[in-house]
Amino acid sequence: MNESTLAFLHRCAPFDRLPDVLLQYCQRHLTLHYLCQDNVLEVVPRDKPQLYLIKQGTFDLIGSNRQLIERLEPGDLFGYPSLMTKRAITNTVKVLEEGFLFALGQAHFDYLCQHNKEFADYFARALGDRLLTETRRDISTDWTQLPIADIIERPVIRLDGHQSMAEAAALMTEQKVSCLLICEQEELVGIVTDRDIRSRVVAARQSFDLPVRQFMTSPVISIESEAPLFDAMQLMTSHNVHHVAVVNDNQPVGVITATDLMRQQRSEPLFLINRIRKAENVDQLEAIAEQVPEHLNQFANRVVDVRLVGDMLATFTDAFNVQLIRLYLREHGPAPCAFVWLTFGSQARRDQSMSSDQDNGLLLDDAADEQARAWFAELAEFVCQGLARCGLTLCKGNIMASNPDLRQPLAAWLEKFRGWTQEPDQKALLHSNIFFDRRMLYGDKWLFEQFDKQIAGFAQNQIFLANLAANAADLAVPIGLFNRFRTRQIGKHREVLDIKKSAIAIINDIVRIHALNAGIRQCSTPERLLVLGENKSMNRKDCQDLLAAWRFLVQLRLQHQLGQAEPDNFIAPDGLDSLARRQLKSAFRLIKDAQEGLALKYSRGAF
């Protein structure tokens, strides 16, 4: 082993913790390999567990479900889970940039673990963190995670925007398709469906000789070909469309339709959401809502990632909410001025649980007079009471549009947020954890953009952020000395911990603070972590670790709640299997580490 290799090992954990005598042992037993895509199976064989240390190059570690586990760069390690658990190797390596890696065999790895406790502890902890990202069922049973590319059966069928509607109809008939993508100079500019021909040409008595671009829908709702089917279903339901363009590096490669999803024989949520949108009154909505728990249970039994149930629940809630607004508008006519129905908290983040309540508000145009405000007061009462009938309970803290304080013109809302950020007392900090997770559900996009943009600016006040950070860093995580859970009695529940208050909410708080500081306007925790890692506002590995912990905790809570008549957040660690207990401890340790990092970064300026 030459001096440069020795210096490299001294910079890489946990080799930097080894005494010289064990480094000399490494010198004799580490082997250096060149890795390219052509020799992956030779250098990283599936039948020979080894510890690998990246010296040069960039590689992706891909799980058996074809999802990215980790991007590997110089100094990163992989291979240790199979060494420690003796389980079969299921992951593969994809070469992004050819390079070199060191390999260490099972016997030599075991020797180092036996002779150096710090080295062994490092990998024990790393294994616990890795377990957070593992699934415990066969991904092949989860239709929602299939890549869209896997079910596209025919190449993209396109038409130039200057061609006529007659040519479009003829091509659709010839190809037996229900839509065409419209492209000009290789750029996707629109989509035309059979519904467009019926409603925009035939029903409107327009000439079939007119150009397609006059009737197409633009811009086009699109999705990447490697995205999972679940994302396509979410796009269709949230935008109320039946066709989504599929792209690869912004180039159209096909179309996925609602019929394609239905062929998977797993798309009951689409039917239920369509029924919500067709409901004629609150009684019908209430009857549909009674079926939601059963649909969610069936959905959970079919998917590997139970966390998707929370996303699906938010989709149902959005659909009920929007339909209630539409029913009111149908009965009482157009709104007297521009408005936005706002949703806050878990519905805004799309991580609702079975026990979530309402958090919403109304943003009004500054021109709203007393008569207009009275109209919106009736709208708010109708929608909030309707949501309660549909199973989304009234908020005990009165965070609802039916509260006049949360039904305000733009100027009043901005003044409210400005006060919270410039004079951050405890009440303001509490409000910030709710209202800074906000999403427009229905209404005027321009009005929401003015609101959202200015709030993002207010939130970058460093004194405000420092106080938010101090609060989040002080929240107790229920794990104590010797890595033991700190359970307690909560009501009638003995030896439990509150998975929402003591874990999930803390991660949401930590990620929100980093996102506000970076000016990120997305409000879901996964989206925020993705952007924070991409723009280097946070260490990419820290983002991945927090996301893995968040996903595990959300999935654990939903699994717990799906079996309950009255869902709660109280987890009894003794009732979990050994794997889940290890994962839970790993998640708690990651949260405590994130709290320490948060306190350090924002330590100046708190009151």
Automatic annotation (TrEMBL):
Keywords: CBS domain. It holds the Pfam family DUF294_C. CDD domains: CAP_ED, CBS_pair_CAP-ED_NT_Pol-beta-like_DUF294_assoc, NT_GlnE_GlnD_like. It comes from the Bacteria. InterPro entries: CBS_dom, CBS_dom_sf, cNMP-bd_dom, cNMP-bd_dom_sf, Diverse_CBS-Domain, DUF294_put_nucleoTrafse_sb-bd, GlnD_Uridyltrans_N, RmlC-like_jellyroll. Residues 51-112 form the Cyclic nucleotide-binding domain. Residues 152-210, 216-272 form the CBS domain. PANTHER family: CBS DOMAIN-CONTAINING PROTEIN, CBS DOMAIN-CONTAINING PROTEIN CBSX3, MITOCHONDRIAL. This is CBS domain-containing protein. The lineage of its organism: Bacteria, Pseudomonadati, Pseudomonadota, Gammaproteobacteria, Alteromonadales.
